[in-house]
């Protein structure tokens, strides 16, 4: 009696639901303005699914996948394997090519089948309904949501082809573990492309979206295996596979090869993410607008718009090609860690390839974690004597035309510097007289450097330094003789100093090096690339003389710990007051690099590393990366 009553109730409910769908269909056909209402309120013409973006090294190898909560590798319809199309149509919507968005008979059939089974064997929603539910609607089991789902589906079917709908559907379904779409699922569970999967593997993946938690292959592979058999049977029933294929796939053992998210080289990738924002700002005009903004509110609004633009590009699935040289990057990170064993002391460096003028390595500090404060380009410190070649020696040589053997009076002298005179001293208070430029730079005599800038003039000397666009060198520094010894109010970053020193590798021409070489969309079209403006800072003749003097620093000056096997090696050391920081900026024929070592700045002020600096770790790091 109970069974008969149940069947009667099922029949009544089915009939009622069919009648409801018939009435809905009639209303849809009668309301002539429905499409117009959708046009005004719903962007059906702009169905969009995010896709992973990628950061690639100099050889085009993947170093970082970029996505938030949705791991999706979008595939166009012609890239989708037929097996996936067949498996999902057979299991989810076998009348897909016949209905107009919803399937009245299919809903009734699913209702009866599920009533007869202890499990949820069939779903009542078409592929189109599932698609609109995933993109537009919630998954709430309510009458209002179901009605909206049907109406949306009708409109989607009017505006898109069946192939378009399948493409969107197979890229939107959720396979668990942040994987959306067949390609991301294939890469995650099997570490290979969907095009390379066997029939058994396709059926295995097809089993998951029905209930990603219940059929999770990581925790419940046996359940997924059971449903794989169900999927294969459906494909056989629909004549998508042969009996022989069915039997072989049923017997095939599934072995997972889970592929974790690719995310290497956090120091460099963090920088690239920031550089990408700068590149978009430059190319899209945000930089100009922000510079001209007169209020903080206006700047905040523009920055929010810029961030939204950057995120939209990353969601579209772009490829950011970079100049990274992985082996050099690994060596740089390793050297910083090994040469600075003291846990309280930090170090960073950047390396630019002189031939390509591209940033090929950058470290953010020992034990660096992605998106943290990156000392390679965000740490601005007083540069000490490493600024002398750029601010004192090269401008003086350019203005006077003299060479390395020319002499300057390096005796102790006081200079007007605000309300009180400033009287610079040399290291260990050593007093000198007349000295050649070559010896003055090699021995890093402070009194000689100040004498040079005094002769050239602060304004003239800074007219050369301004061409490097040091971000935090301001007007107050340009009025201060102490700046020639690196006594800036804030300072420079390792990346800025490395960029400036590349001028010595390029005959006196400066062009700011970047890490990004080009940005491409999913079709391989170039969206962005940096312009490469060149500025002649000083003449080739001056540059040749400076290279001689920088080489002398290494052979018989403060850089004598440099031991690099290369046709040319030159550079300059830098030490700030009380040994709070030590620098080495230098170059070979192939690379230019700047290395900064010091304790992180705290509220208690900078702290000395004098004892540690005696082993010249900055020069040893330069040796490591250049050799």
TrEMBL record:
Residues 60-235 form the Glycosyl transferase family domain. It is found in: Cell membrane. Coiled coil: none annotated. Gene3D superfamilies: Biosynthetic peptidoglycan transglycosylase-like, DD-peptidase/beta-lactamase superfamily. InterPro entries: Beta-lactam/transpept-like, Glyco_trans_51, Glycosyltr_51/Transpeptidase, Lysozyme-like_dom_sf, PBP_transglycosylase, PCN-bd_Tpept. It comes from the Bacteria. Keywords: Carboxypeptidase, Cell membrane, Cell shape, Cell wall biogenesis/degradation, Glycosyltransferase, Hydrolase, Membrane, Multifunctional enzyme, Peptidoglycan synthesis, Protease, Transferase. It catalyses: Preferential cleavage: (Ac)2-L-Lys-D-Ala-|-D-Ala. Also transpeptidation of peptidyl-alanyl moieties that are N-acyl substituents of D-alanine; [GlcNAc-(1->4)-Mur2Ac(oyl-L-Ala-gamma-D-Glu-L-Lys-D-Ala-D-Ala)](n)-di-trans,octa-cis-undecaprenyl diphosphate + beta-D-GlcNAc-(1->4)-Mur2Ac(oyl-L-Ala-gamma-D-Glu-L-Lys-D-Ala-D-Ala)-di-trans,octa-cis-undecaprenyl diphosphate = [GlcNAc-(1->4)-Mur2Ac(oyl-L-Ala-gamma-D-Glu-L-Lys-D-Ala-D-Ala)](n+1)-di-trans,octa-cis-undecaprenyl diphosphate + di-trans,octa-cis-undecaprenyl diphosphate + H(+). Residues 347-626 form the Penicillin-binding protein transpeptidase domain. Its main location: membrane. Pfam families: Transgly, Transpeptidase. PANTHER family: BINDING PROTEIN TRANSPEPTIDASE, PUTATIVE-RELATED (PTHR32282), PENICILLIN-BINDING PROTEIN 1B (PTHR32282:SF11). This is Penicillin-binding protein 1A. It comes from Alkalicoccobacillus murimartini.
